[in-house]
Please model this.
Amino acid sequence: MDTPFQNKWITTIILPLIGGMIYASSFPMTFAPSFFFGTVIGMGLLFYALAFSSKEIEDKSLWLDLVSVIAFSIGYNTLGYYWIPETLKEFGQIPFPLNWSLGIFFSLIICPHLLLFTIIHRMYRKLAVSSSSFVASVSSRNIIYALLLTLFEYFTPQQFPAHMGHSWMQLAPNLGLAPIFGAPIFSFINFWLALSLVSKVKFKRWDVLSFIVFSLFLIINISLPLSRTQRNETISHQVRLVQPNIGNFLKISSEKGQGDAFSEIFNRYFRLSTKESTKQIDLIVWPETAYPRLLNSKNMSKDHRYSPKLIRDIMKNTGAELFTGGYDRSDSKSKNYFMTEYNTAFHFSTDGTLKDKFHKIKLIPFGEGLPFGPFNQFLSKYIQNISFFANGEKLTLFRTNKNTPFVSAICYEILFSSFIRHHLNTLEINPQFLINLTNDSWYGMTAEPEQHLFLSKWRALEFALPIVRMTNTGITSVIYANGEETKRSGLFVEEVQDIELHTSVREKTLFQKFGILLTFILGVILLLLSMGIKKLRTSKN
Model:
């Protein structure tokens, strides 16, 4: 028989560790199907380990709660982010076993919102399960916790935000509330359900309201399926997606100036881009950093002769426009390449003249820069494997040859809801689609490309914004505003897709206008309802 000490450590470490793994199972994996309730059950095991009641808080130190969160993060990281060591090996040239050791340390920052919530919750003991008459009912307490957790999840910066409610994407296109409330409402419902399960198992108290609301929420979403576009009147563009499948060795060699590598990349892009088509191509799209040489957007926008000959030849051959990733020269005069380049999306017209460009704003920490502010320039002298790109400032509103407005986000910028919302709201005209240029080749044959695609879909639903997702090695497809996709390209295959992209004049969704505010208001309404039910029951007794 286990001693109380052993039971305590099983609860403190083992349950959250298993919970983290179950939480990760809600997201795409290469070896098993996704589990819809994984986030709820996994988070429920963590909540079971944490101290919520006044007695538990008195008996259990804050440090043990933090250990539980770290254990949850380790389980989540081990199953959900096992591709990180592969990234460190390819992107940072960090060999085995150091790459795996560093991958484990990612557990310390994978769930910062849970660490922050745990600390602040323990500081404000009045919100504990048996404390205040203001939150006397189990439903009221769970609603408050779920709302706080949702706010912490939304506002706390994260490296790869796979949120509590994102598992609902498995039900797309039956997610009618997504353009109204965005992903936060789905996180709120899942947090509430997880807390309710713990209330029953741990404290023997039913939170009936949570199960009623969850059922209604599910029914409403299923009964209000989303459409591919906001309106029936659509504009059609013939888009060619060129997935070249250029490996990292070849890519890096070309960027270092090796002639054979240049020739191979140029020939591949020309051959794929100029393939015969039964219809006139309007727009050819290449992936992130596709063109390997440093370009100068100021010169190319003045005279098409400054644009690369490869691009001018392809435009002449196809009569199409080109949208591609590449490197743009910045105004920095740094001698050690610190912020001398932008990771850029370029839009070329049919004669090869640069129409416009977008400089990536949100850079990948430890890959495209360091998160150390004024110390970065000093460190750049000694750390050679990081690009140290300059930051862009705003989204660019591009226009196709049919005058259709669109925007672009590069790589993992697409994962951040508040980032996309903020920049969309700075534009005077609503774009009709978004092009997401990505290079996931660093992650190998892992679940990362599937996870990246899965989480990107939420931006399409939240903003009713079709997304053209163009990658180097896969997965390439078009995501419509209801979460449906066109045919996917395979991983690590050379492939060309000619897609008829339908877009419509788009109005701002309620989520784009109000963000998480609507979820907060709904949470407060449910809290008042719970308190009213409790008061009514008390008066009857």
Notes: The first strand starts at residue 235 and ends at 243. Residues 1-5, 126-134 have pLDDT under 50 and may be disordered. The first helix runs from residue 4 to 24.
